[in-house]
Design brief:
- The structure is a homotrimer of 139-residue chains.
- Chain A has 139 residues and is α+β, with helices and mostly antiparallel strands.
- Chain A has one domain: Jelly Rolls (Sandwich).
- Chain A is built from 3 helices and 8 strands; from the N terminus they run ββαββααββββ.
- In chain A, a hairpin with a 2-residue loop joins strand 5 and strand 6.
- The longest helix of chain A has 14 residues.
- The radius of gyration of chain A is 16 Å and the shape is elongated.
- At the A-C interface, strand 3, helix 3 and strand 8 of A face strand 4, helix 2 and strand 5 of C.
- Chains A, B, C: It comes from Devosia marina.
- Chains A, B, C: Pfam families: YjbQ.
């Protein structure tokens, strides 16, 4: 049994979904592990991870639209406002999605479905430098 | 250390929670792994996974009721509408729940709590053939 | 490759976020595993797990405020009401957050970001005795 761990930086350009499927696939391929489990983990609380459709970009537009309506800026009862109007909504959006996602490996590849992509979901308005950690175990 | 991986098909009958706890338990038992980690993964973006109460079926009714109200069909700002009025709401419901769930194994069994069941949460109106992948590692 | 599993009890004092970061760190340190994966799992369906900011307590206040508004008590269409007005909202809040979180281990420590803490998120009004399971694999 083997394992490997690697850090990746994603430079986000404000709110949006940034696909990291290729980064994940390259990492898995580099380890030559045939069967196992890969875990993607994001070291932040105002961005998150999401597996979503990567075929039609409209899905990403609507995903942003929904989360922006569900957790709008300007909710007047918020008390954590010192880091800007988009900060607490960003923490809430992160809580509603994922910080960590585990994906089985079979035949040397993550078993993502045909239309599944792995995304870093940036919830802050300004660009951020985000740290992603990949861990793999298997053989 | 050993590992195993298996695919399971769940034939859904439209929106609802389809319990796969027995499938998970059978898979774990078949591997004879006593201590480890089992990961359930669904290869789709319009259904998801959920651990929820399996004692009172009313919990499932209300879960459906809540998600149907939180993410209704007919939100007039949606742009991804070509696959039907239930498609984009399905992607959003999947984003709000899980694509992957890891459960520790102890004494040869997944450590699900007394009332916990593992469900495939179908978000589309029509029946679908859904692929679930289970991975286990341990000894 | 080694693994370990441990159970921890968290005595909650009603709705709120109960930090278990130190418990997680102690468990990881006790195993002397340098590189690996730790999984936190909660054996209940009316509380959940969350990774969130542990710097400003206001974030926790607002997190509670948001979930309380998104899933209020007294939704008149609920059918599962026999366990009290806070029970079904608790199940829904658990569905919207996590039952299981996997965190890579590097250099003998969980790779939590600077501001990340691991919390048990209690959704019931009364104090509860909650069971948390930690599993670690690595070497």
């Amino acid at each position: 049994m083997h394992q490997a761990i690697d850090n990746h930086i994603v430079e986000t350009r404000g709110q949006g979904l940034f696909e990291v499927t290729r980064t994940l696939r390259s990492f898995v391929a580099s380890t030559r592990i045939e069967t196992g489990l890969v875990t993607a983990y994001v070291r932040h609380t105002s961005c998150s991870l999401l597996i979503q459709e990567n075929a039609d970009a409209d899905v990403q537009t609507d995903m942003m639209g929904f989360f922006g309506r569900l957790v709008p800026e300007g909710m007047d009862w918020l008390v954590h406002t010192t880091e800007g109007p988009d900060d607490m909504p960003a923490h809430i959006k992160a809580a509603l999605t994922q910080t960590s996602i585990g994906i089985p490996i079979s035949g040397g590849r993550a078993v993502l479905g045909t239309w599944q992509g792995l995304y870093l979901f940036e919830h802050r308005r300004r660009p951020h430098r985000r740290e992603l950690v990949f861990h793999i175990i298997g053989e």
